[in-house]
Amino acid sequence: MEDPPNHSSPPLLQVLQALKEASHNLQANPSQHTDDANSAAIKALFELHSESDTILSGDPNLSYLSQLLTDLKDLVESHRNTKRGLGLGSFLRRRTSAHSISRIAGSIESEIQKWIDRESVGDLSRALREPMRDEEELVNLLVQLEERVSLGFSREFQDLVLRLKVFPSLESILCDPKCSKRIREHSALAIAGLIRFNKDVFVGQVLMGPTISALTSMASPNSIQVLCSLIRSIKSPIVDEIESNGEIPKIISFLNSQDLLMKVVAMDCVLEIGYFGRKEAIEAMLKEGLIEKLIELQRSELGGDLIDIDKHSEKEEENEEERGVSVGGVVEKGKRESRQRRFLQNHPFASCVARFAVQLEVGEGLRQRERRAFKQEILSRVREASISDAESATIVAEVLWGSSP
To answer: Which domain covers residue 396, as residue numbers?
Structure first.
């Protein structure tokens, strides 16, 4: 299948972007703009209409847009010529006219977005075949794809992506060690964006393809963050693949990284797997000594115990009482949660054993009897790995009572 023709030129794209913005503003509030003689949106639309023959005639895909501009101009002029009156008939005529203007403005915005989509996806499809040619251009196109899919679902855009085989090309770039790390990471972000765009269509390609192994092999904070995003989107099925592909030992090993950010995102990944993972995945993590590693992290300067937050805030609360500040139960709960969030920002591994246990308790992957069995195993491992009775007692108490942010 051939790529769409590339008629793009900066002036045309700038014109269409300006027209899209003007149409969006007019669609949102047609009456205000049409009644205002100095409306920027109307001025832009009228100026573009007068130049549309030369600007739009070069691309057959824009012929319908030209006709819409003509229809809109006629409607706006008719609306302005409609006499204002106090009667119901005058009110209804102007409301109907404003509705028609809004509808056509929406159609103009949609047509422009379709044109931009055809051009940008076509450019991306070509660039993905030659990733070494211009890294900056390819990164910009990948960012455009991420931004486009974040706008929400579009059948036409999805068909375009499928027809030009963008997803397999992204996977190919992600798995190519000759490509720069930056390009590979942006390709991974684009893949995650497409999953959020329409999980039903693209999830099968992730589960059957090399994406999971490529992300763990890259071993960068960004690649593991993308893996976390995929786990949140695809849930238990992708955790099953992670476990069956033997990727869990790699993920657990990232907790030993010298890079703090890598440790933090690995912790996030462990928590996501704990929430969505089935029995086999949890067993694989425990077999790799996860609880022992989490105890070490909790013992570090960036660890600590969330139950200590109350101790840290006692002086603050005493000061509030002295000032006569009274708070209700809901406010107090909000304050406590806020303190926990602030504490975790500076101590990302605080109460990490209990936080993992909570994920198993409230997650989607385990049966009730499996939750109970894993909780007992976690408690047993805590008692064995703790260096003091006090440390063991604190962590056991958190696990039993469920300390979570």
So the answer is: 293-321+329-401
